[in-house]
């Protein structure tokens, strides 16, 4: 990365934090506007919205979108996926909603899954896959509930199913033969890829260079300041290509090297336009964040910029938990001030605070009032239609 003509800029952690918050669209109340069109706009900007099965409160994909779209409704995501088809589901670092115009960046991975299936699909035969594909082709989209398997098999992986047809559906999904055309809760309905999207044939696979550009551009758009780790989160095999791309853009002065005070050993980069309009201190908006929110999911980056180490304790024995089973970080302005463990009582339509852990200077009357108001809004969201 040596270049005597390049300019290296030094930023404080607070300045870097503000740039990241602005890139995450958490510094303003309604960054994507209102109505159904806000949902695909948010997915497009963030690059992905993670899906998870835990539902002690509203599931994380709805939570992440509501955080940035206060008027968000679950039906908006269904419209984007099942009707407008502007988003689809596939594996990024986890199962996630992804913009449909990014489909080609996953075609290569789908082909590799066809050639080298994941180990927990070892019991799935080509005949099993042909059976479910023919059933979908002749009867239309279906869910696993629509299939009755007379013979069940043993599970050899925690994510697997005892139904051979479900394993075949999952294998066909990863292989890009079917897509999830809609979901109700966590019940997925599958359809043939071409029929769902109305394609004569799927898009051609992007090249590895194009994939590297997509990863870097996504990180620059949604993070503002990027490191190699943050751009290639859980995708280590693409780090060499992304580093070469970063070096090329630095030489062209499309990216500037950044040094973060107190974290000088971690290389960062940013586009000059981001630095030309560096934000002032963020207003005191309050966000109750999902532990799978893109601001939270990269734990090392979170620790570096916020000096907050989030603990996901759902799989930690009760006696070893510090923040609680499903703790949610509370962002006030540009500081994470608390972690609260919540549980939705769906029978009585209330939101119970299991545990509240105040950080830094602890609770003040002002912070307590702001959190109470945010919890009231969050409770309304939990039980909205």
- The SSE string, one letter per element, is EHHEHHEEHHEHEEHHHHEEHEHEEEH
The CATH architecture classification of the domain at 104-197 is Orthogonal Bundle
| Percent range of helical residues | 25-40%
Please work out how many helical segments DSSP would assign.
Answer: 14
CATH class category label of the domain at 104-197: Mainly Alpha
Mean pLDDT: 91
Largest sheet: 4 strands, antiparallel
Strand composition percent: 15-25%
Structural class: alpha+beta
Question: Strands of the biggest beta sheet: in what spatial order?
Answer: 10-11-12-13
The CATH topology of the domain at 104-197 is Arc Repressor Mutant, subunit A
Task: Tell me the overall shape.
Answer: globular
Ranges where pLDDT stays below 50 over 5 or more residues in a row are 1-5
Q: What gap, in angstroms, lies between the N and C termini?
A: 53 Å
Gyration radius over CA = 22 Å
The total of beta strands comes to 13
Helices and strands, with pairings:
Layout: E1 9-11, H1 13-23, H2 38-46, E2 49-50, H3 60-68, H4 74-83, E3 87-91, E4 95-99, H5 104-115, H6 126-139, E5 142-143, H7 164-174, E6 178-184, E7 187-192, H8 193-197, H9 208-223, H10 228-231, H11 239-251, E8 256-260, E9 268-270, H12 272-276, E10 286-288, H13 299-306, E11 327-332, E12 335-345, E13 350-358, H14 365-382
Parallel strand pairs: 1-8
Antiparallel strand pairs: 2-4, 3-4, 5-7, 6-7, 8-9, 10-11, 11-12, 12-13
């Amino acid at each position: 990365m040596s270049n005597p003509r390049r300019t290296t800029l030094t930023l404080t952690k607070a300045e870097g934090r503000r740039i990241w918050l602005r890139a995450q669209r958490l510094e303003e109340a309604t960054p994507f506007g209102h109505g159904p069109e806000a949902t695909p706009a948010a997915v497009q900007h963030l690059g992905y919205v993670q899906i998870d099965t835990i539902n002690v409160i509203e599931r994380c994909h709805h939570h992440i979108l509501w955080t940035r779209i206060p008027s968000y409704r679950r039906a908006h995501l269904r419209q984007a996926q099942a009707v407008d088809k502007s988003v689809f589901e596939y594996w990024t670092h986890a199962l996630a909603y992804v913009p449909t115009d990014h489909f080609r960046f996953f075609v290569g991975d789908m082909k590799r899954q066809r050639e080298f299936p994941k180990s927990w699909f070892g019991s799935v035969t080509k005949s099993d896959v042909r059976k479910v594909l023919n059933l979908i082709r002749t009867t239309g989209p279906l869910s696993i509930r629509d299939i009755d398997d007379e013979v069940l098999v043993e599970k050899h992986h925690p994510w697997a199913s005892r139904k051979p047809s479900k394993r075949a559906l999952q294998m066909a999904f990863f292989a890009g033969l079917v897509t999830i055309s809609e979901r109700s809760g966590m019940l997925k309905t599958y359809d043939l890829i071409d029929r769902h999207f109305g394609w004569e044939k799927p898009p051609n696979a992007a090249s590895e260079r194009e994939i590297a550009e997509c990863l870097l551009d996504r990180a620059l758009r949604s993070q503002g300041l990027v490191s190699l780790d943050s751009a290639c989160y859980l995708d280590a095999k693409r780090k060499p290509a992304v580093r070469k791309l970063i070096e090329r853009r630095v030489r062209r002065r499309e990216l500037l090297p950044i040094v973060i005070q107190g974290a000088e050993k971690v290389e960062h980069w940013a586009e000059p336009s981001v630095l030309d309009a560096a934000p002032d201190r963020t207003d005191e908006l309050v966000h109750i964040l999902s532990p799978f929110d893109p601001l939270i999911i990269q734990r090392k980056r979170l620790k570096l910029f916020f000096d907050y180490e989030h603990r996901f304790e759902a799989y930690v024995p009760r006696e070893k938990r510090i923040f609680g089973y499903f703790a949610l970080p509370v962002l006030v302005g540009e500081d994470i001030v608390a972690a609260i463990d919540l549980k939705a009582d769906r029978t009585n339509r209330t939101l119970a605070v299991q545990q509240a852990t105040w950080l830094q200077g602890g609770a003040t009357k002002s912070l307590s009032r702001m959190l109470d108001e945010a919890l009231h809004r969050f409770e309304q969201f939990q039980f909205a239609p």
